[in-house]
Amino acid sequence: MTSTAIPKTTVRKGMAESEIENPWRLAWRRFRRHKAAVAALAGMFTILAYIWLGGLFFSRGLCEPTGKYLTSEAYANCNDLAKKLQPPSREHPFGTDTIGRDILARTIYGGQISLTIGIFAAIVEVVVGVLIGAVAGYFGGWIDDVLMRITEAMLIIPSLFLLLVLSKALGGRVPPIDVLGRTFSGSVIVIILVIGFTSWTYLARIVRANVLSLKQLDFISASRALGVSDARIIFRHLLPNTMAPIIVSSTLGVSAAILSESYVSFLGLGVQTPTASWGNMLDTAVKYVQTAPWLWFFPGLFILLTVLCINFIGDGLRDALDPRSTKHI
């Protein structure tokens, strides 16, 4: 990952002013020529359409134990022991789980939770990492020393171990919350915060390195001479020129957060029932690996495809946003 900022224009000798390329347009042209990244982007849109729109078509039906016709997440959580461990069929295309819940519906709402955790954990990671890296790089001195020692201490601690300990300690203490008509277990908030606050260290080092190089340039010296405040220099001049590595890191942070949530939920310490996630769906399937493979195949497949798509998109963004790259031009 490069630490060089994107140039403002791409100029070739003899070009008319109207032909000078916008840097983001150039980046998009590079990205489009990265075939794996474009295919991954299409795949990611397909997955997003499935988990956000699929509930309108696939998550509805009669819950026989209650005699009610249910829609949305209520149908995904309907227990019908008479239908437990049914293989894929026309009625239940992905089969049913150990207490008769429809796996197709649960992959839809479990995917919403897994992606929500991934996105919001990445947001926390970016906010913390960018602030610490920018402040350490810009001010230097003892502030830099203190913040970098904290960063190094966080790097020493195994993040998965810390995630397991904090999830166990805090998971049952946060009450469920209602957002937009949906009830989320408190464990979702805990997982987002824990993953976000344990994964910012690499981004902080990247941002610090960029700020250290950029603050020596003439336009930063001119801003200081004109009396521009430190906050304005950081947020209006330095960070916009560090967007390339931030975008790439945040993209890859989403896939890392999804995998981390899957690890913890698989061990029974992550998202708690009745809220579904792809990770805790795998946890319920561990005793039926051979006898009921559909329990783990579908959530595992969605985790695999989602992480692959995000990683390929991140790879494409890395090449597209690198001003020194000659690939895919």
CATH architecture: Orthogonal Bundle
Number of E strands: 4
What are the low-pLDDT stretches, counting only 5+ consecutive residues below 50?
1-11, 14-19
Total count of domains:
1
What is the fold named in CATH at topology level? MetI-like fold
Molecular shape: elongated
Q: Mind describing the biggest β-sheet?
A: 2 strands, antiparallel
Read across the widest sheet, the strand sequence of neighbours is 1-2
Strand content: under 5%
By CATH, the superfamily comes out as: MetI-like
Supply the number of helical segments: 14
Average predicted local confidence, pLDDT: 83
Q: Give the % helix.
A: 55-70%
N-to-C series of helices and strands: HHHEEHHHHEEHHHHHHH
CATH class category label: Mainly Alpha
- The class by helix and strand makeup works out as mainly alpha
Structure description:
- Strands 1-2 form a two-stranded antiparallel sheet. A two-stranded antiparallel ribbon has the order 3-4.
- The chain is elongated.
- The protein starts with about 20 loop residues before the first helix and ends in a 9-residue tail after the last helix.
- It contains 14 helices and four strands.
- The protein has about 325 residues and is mainly alpha-helical.
- The protein has a single domain (about 30-320), classed as MetI-like fold.
Concise summary:
63% of the residues lie in helices and 4% in strands. The chain is mainly alpha-helical and 329 residues long.
Throw out a few tags for this protein.
329 residues; MetI-like fold; two-stranded antiparallel ribbon; mainly alpha; 63% helix
